[in-house]
Amino acid sequence: MNLRTFVAEAGFVVASIQYRTITDGATYADSLIDVKSAIRYLRAHADAYGIDPDHIAVWAESAGGYLAAMAGVTSNLKSFDKGG
Description:
Blueprint: H1 3-9, H2 28-44, H3 46-49, H4 63-73
Helix pairs in contact: 2-4
C-alpha cells in the first residue's frame, strides 16, 4: 500500500499535485510557485473537499520534499504567491 492511500484511509484528505520542472523549462521558483498556488487553491475550495483550511500539512519525497520544505519556509514571502 502506498503512503497516500494509508494516510487517506486514516481519515485525512490527500491531494497530489503536479508542478513544473526543469524538463518543462521551469526554475525552482516556478516549481515553488506551483506548489503554493495549489495550497491556495485547496484552501479556497476547502468546503468542497472537506478540508480544514487551518490545518494543512505539506508532505512529499525527493524533489517534492524539497518543495514542501521551501513552501513552509517561504510562507510569508508574497513573491512566490503568483497564479490562481
